[in-house]
Amino acid sequence: MKEQIALEPAPFGDLPHGKTEDKTHEIAPDLAYQRLILANIVFWGRPGAEDRSWVLVDTGLPGLSGMIEHAAHQRFGEFSRPAAIVLTHGHFDHTGGLKHLARHWDVPIYVHELEMPYLNGRASYPPPDPHADGGLIARLSPFFPKGSMDVSAWLHPLPLNGTIPEMPGWIWLHTPGHSVGHISLWRESDRTLIVGDAFITTNQESAYAVAIQKPELHGPPTFLTTDWAAARDSVALLAAFQPELVICGHGRAMRGPEMRKALELLAMEFEQIAVPTRSAYLDEPALVADGSAYRDP
Predict the structure, then answer these.
(1) Contacts with 223 (C-beta within 8 Å, 6 or more apart), sequence order
(2) Which domains are present in the chain?
(3) 287 — alpha (psi -120 to 50), left (phi > 0) or beta?
(4) What angle do CA 45, 50, 56 make, to 5 degrees?
(5) Which of 35, 132, 202, 220 could potentially form a cystine with 279 if both were Cys, beta carbons 3.0 to 4.6 Å apart?
(6) Residue 210 — φ and ψ, nearest 5°?
């Protein structure tokens, strides 16, 4: 079994989690996240932001778009719509409400160009691996949605210069491994990272750990990660930024020197901590180069 890095709340800088009226966790004046059962969504923009003056990062599980709309209305105003939706990647637990929200708000969706085939109806993800050192959630992974989604009417590739439309002060970083077009978001001014599933702060393979949300630093969820060498390099890249604050797709947001120390350890000992002892993708990763990352829709 892979190891883990336990994060004790107080000394390891676990952020305060008093919920606001919109049931989000505000962690900076213009940054809040909301846990929707299994996955987090992120709101960028100050409370009360005008129409088209804020951005939604990821859209959670299927069937929860109403909760996102409610939180957005509470935070920004009943008639305030986002300027954009930015996706860290296209897995089902990060795009569940995407089509409804894009249509409802008539809002552009930005994603890495390598992730676009999963979102324009051209390809499906490689199958999950339920045997990758997993618990109950991993064993259930073959039943998760993995088919193609078509939101091409609103879909746009992220600019090649690293900027993020409608998010001044932020850049995107290509952090593949969990998926071929996975990205993370970085803001230099306060050293904040939004990392999607490049690494996470809960054991996503365990239903118990997901339920109690005890802070633990882990690599990407094993059962959906299809290139472990790329995943290792992505964690090393993110650790090199020496972030002050990280928001993951799963688990609590964390900040401070002990978080950085744990992230450095994860990068240095990635194989021992994060890589499963068995996985269908250890010897045969799903790659863009040979087309194995893309399946028929």
Answers:
(1) 128, 129, 130, 132, 134, 137, 138, 141, 205
(2) 5-273 (3.60.15.10)
(3) beta
(4) 40
(5) 132
(6) -65, -35
List of residues 6+ apart from 173 with CB closer than 8 A: 162, 183, 184, 185, 186, 237, 238
Tokens of 95: 């795009």
Q: Rounded to 5 degrees, what are φ and ψ at 251?
A: 100, 175
Per-residue pLDDT of the chain (297 residues; tens, 9 = 90+): 445 555 443 333 445 444 455 578 899 999 999 998 889 999 999 999 999 999 999 999 999 999 999 999 999 999 999 999 999 999 999 999 999 999 999 999 999 999 999 999 999 999 988 877 656 565 555 556 666 789 999 999 999 999 999 999 999 999 999 999 999 999 999 999 999 999 999 764 443 334 334 567 899 999 899 999 999 999 999 999 999 999 999 998 999 998 999 999 999 999 999 999 888 899 999 999 999 999 998
**Residue 240 class from Cβ within 10 Å (0-12 exposed, 13-18 middle, 19+ buried)?**
exposed
Amino acid at 290: D
Residue with tokens 């979102």: 119
List of E strands, the chain: 5-6, 25-28, 31-36, 39-44, 55-57, 84-86, 109-111, 155-157, 170-174, 183-187, 192-196, 216-217, 245-248, 254-255
Q: How far is CA 41 from CA 148, 167, 270, in A?
A: 21, 16, 26
Closest CA to 162 of 183, 178, 182: 183
Cβ(76)–Cβ(32) below 8 Å: no
Give the distance from CA 79 to its chain's centroid: 27
Contacts of 135 (CB under 8 A, 6+ apart): 203, 205, 206, 207, 208
